[in-house]
Write a structure and sequence with these properties.
ten-stranded mixed beta sheet; globular; Enolase-like, domain 1; 13 helices; 36% helix; alpha/beta
Length: 392
């Protein structure tokens, strides 16, 4: 069996362009699907996939580790960067899909079989933009409570929100009190049996992240995510030590070496590798083994398309440290038109049980994808009240 083609299929899905990667073999009807979605870098990722393709054509697709090493180590420049790391990830995911299909088993059985009966999903409420804070009454937190109740009504037992507003490197009490009122409203609305996560999107400075974490500690968050830039691991570690709330981070990290430093510094309680960026299923399995050694939980970052979700779930059924999966189900109304998925979401509790479909259990309808061609994403810009550039 040999690889004969590597294709990229772009599907515009409102906030982002999904990049589906199809690795085609010389066996009739046997191919694998991966995903290499990277917002605002679609052209760059497709170019990186094209650059990697000569290393793959004519190769045995079941030699997955060998091909991963070729993609990462050849051409002198290692695959540490986000663009090349995403390209490698998309191809690697497709190779595992091929292997599972060729053997007639789901991918999680390739990795030792299921270690759990189901995976719990969580939803994302959004929020946290400048207009939410500066152009509204900071005491009006009813919108967050309404969103929380609606999410629970859909069956979710956990959700994430960006209740922390964008702030300058140092501000007074107003943004702190705003975030506290929003989280308090959500906790009061849903009670203590629902898990709430707050995502800072790595926008605060280390000191502001520390202040937000301290203010929100009484509300029993499931985790507090990216309290400051991922480049400042010592500061993330300091916040982790200062509060009882579990700190989560890792969605912007590529490769096991970045996660090794994160874990060595005891900087978080939850790591969040994105399978479409960190190096694919091959690399995330190594990262998970490292997290297991440190007894740190794992919850993948997964706001992308359906192949990313299928890969995140298949991986989760085989990873002991895995605790929950991010779920996107309302990004575009035609999401189910472009794919078929073998897994079924049980409405009560929003859980997924392992399936028997071979590979990742997902197929992409290329004809449907073609109805939504590439569009340049709108720039997501942020500026502070004084006009200085902030983090989105």
């Amino acid at each position: 069996m040999k690889i004969v083609a590597v294709e990229s299929h772009v599907c515009n899905a409102r906030m982002r362009n999904w990049i589906f990667v199809k690795v085609v073999t010389d066996q009739p009807g046997l191919w694998g699907w991966g995903e290499a979605t990277l917002e605002w870098h679609t052209r760059s990722v497709i170019g990186a996939i094209e650059d990697l393709t000569p290393l793959l054509i004519g190769q045995d697709p079941t030699r997955i580790e060998y091909l991963w090493q070729r993609m990462y180590r050849q051409h002198f420049w290692h695959g540490n960067g986000i663009v090349r790391g995403t390209a490698i990830s998309g191809i690697d995911i497709a190779l595992w899909d091929i292997l599972g299909k060729s053997l007639g088993v789901p991918c999680h059985k390739l990795w030792g079989g299921p270690v759990r009966d189901y995976i719990r999903l969580y939803s994302h409420l959004g929020g946290g933009k400048m207009e939410d804070f500066y152009q509204t009454d900071p005491t009006d937190s009813s919108r967050f409570a309404e969103l929380a109740l609606a999410t629970v009504a859909e069956g979710f037992t956990a959700f994430k929100t960006m209740a922390v507003p964008e702030t300058m490197p140092l501000e007074g009490l107003r943004p702190i009190h705003y975030a506290e009122k929003c989280v308090a409203a959500m906790r009061e609305a849903v009670g203590n049996d629902i898990d709430i996560m707050v995502d800072c999107h790595a926008r605060p400075s280390p000191r502001m992240g520390h202040l937000f974490a301290t203010a929100l500690e009484p509300y029993g968050l499931y985790w507090f995510e990216e309290p400051c830039w991922p480049e400042t691991l010592d500061d993330i570690a300091a916040i982790q030590r200062a509060v009882r709330t579990p700190i989560a981070t890792g969605e912007r990290m590529v490769g096991i070496w970045a996660f090794r430093e994160l874990l060595e510094k005891r900087a978080c309680s939850v790591i969040q590798p994105d399978i479409t960026h960190c190096g694919g299923l091959s690399e995330v399995r190594r990262i998970a083994a490292l997290a297991e050694a440190y007894r740190v939980s794992l919850a993948p970052h997964n706001p992308q398309g359906p192949v990313s979700t299928a890969a995140s779930l298949e991986f989760g059924f085989s990873a002991p440290s895995y605790i929950i999966c991010e779920s996107v189900h309302r990004d575009v109304p035609w999401r189910q038109d472009v794919c078929t998925e073998s897994y079924v979401v049980e409405a009560q509790g929003r859980i997924v049980r392992p399936g028997d479909a071979p590979g990742l259990g997902v197929e992409i309808n290329v004809a449907e994808v073609a109805k939504y061609p590439f569009q340049q994403e709108a720039p997501m810009e942020s500026f502070y009240a004084d006009g200085a550039v902030g983090d989105w």
